[in-house]
Amino acid sequence: MLSDYRIRAAIILLAAALIGGSALLVSWLRSPESAGALIGGPFALTDQTGRQVTEQDFRGKLMLIYFGFVFCPDACPTALANMTDAIEQLGPAGEDVVPVFITVDPERDTEEVLRDYAEAFHPRLKALRGTPEQTAEVARAYRIYFKKAAETAPGEYLVDHSSIVFLMGRNGRYLTHFTHMTLPEPMAAEIKKRL
Ligand code: NI
């Protein structure tokens, strides 16, 4: 009888510890500090002028990064318009923020396509592409999901992708994030706090 009681008490204690532990883990995973530990990292890509770039080239500047594809009809142009407007609203201080677009469709988004696209948004926009492997790697580092949808005609397809605008610090570490719907004013205000 006594051992039965002890076993029951031990089970209850164990369950309580598990619940408490997972609650702590969940709150840690939701905190910005943990997100900072999980998002970003090294990358090696090519910009719209054919220059090799790595994350080291952006040290000392803030990066405002978005992943998408040029043929995207909605989220991508909205995100890039909001990002670049936010940077402009910061005035001269905005020069410390580099807008970065990383394509998840390097097959169609060639250097030339990216050059035209970048010019349409901002003179300092870095439009980056990699091999399929480099693209998968950088997307994994930023916890970005992307998947090519079925072709509707030869070469015509959409790419389903996460839509998050990341703000990375001068040391390359994650600071905060926005969505493509975040308007330029609140985005600029959040960036300003971290300049
Ligand atoms: Ni898009």
Task: Report a brief summary of the structure.
The chain is 42% helix and 21% strand. The protein is an alpha/beta fold.
Give a verbal description of the structure.
- The chain is of the alpha/beta class and 195 residues long.
- Helices cover 42% and strands 21% of the residues.
- It has helices spanning 2-30, 32-38, 75-89, 111-121, 132-141, 184-193; strands at 44-46, 52-54, 62-68, 97-103, 126-128, 146-148, 159-161, 164-168, 174-179.
- The longest helix has 29 residues, at 2-30.
- The model has no long low-confidence stretch (mean pLDDT 90).
- Bound molecules: nickel (II) ion (NI).
- Nickel (II) ion binds at residues 68-69, 72, 75-76, 161.
List the helices and strands and how they pair.
Elements: H1 2-30, H2 32-38, E1 44-46, E2 52-54, E3 62-68, H3 75-89, E4 97-103, H4 111-121, E5 126-128, H5 132-141, E6 146-148, E7 159-161, E8 164-168, E9 174-179, H6 184-193
Parallel strand pairs: 3-4, 4-5
Antiparallel strand pairs: 1-2, 3-8, 6-7, 8-9
The structure holds nickel (II) ion.
Give the integer mean of the pLDDT values.
Answer: 90
The count of domains is 2
CATH fold-level assignment of the largest domain:
Glutaredoxin
Instruction: Provide the CATH architecture of the largest domain.
Output: 3-Layer(aba) Sandwich
Order of helices and strands: HHEEEHEHEHEEEEH
| Name of the level-1 CATH class of the largest domain | Alpha Beta
CATH homologous superfamily heading of the largest domain: Glutaredoxin
Got a strand count? 9
Query: What is the gyration radius calculated from CA atoms?
Result: 21 Å
Number of helices, where a helix is a run of at least 4 consecutive DSSP H or I residues: 6
**Ligands:** nickel (II) ion
Structural class: alpha/beta
Name the strands of the widest sheet in spatial order: 5-4-3-8-9
What oligomeric state best describes the polypeptide chains here?
A: single chain
The helicity comes to: 40-55%
Q: Which stretches are low in confidence, meaning pLDDT under 50 for 5 or more residues running?
A: none
Distance between the termini: 66 Å
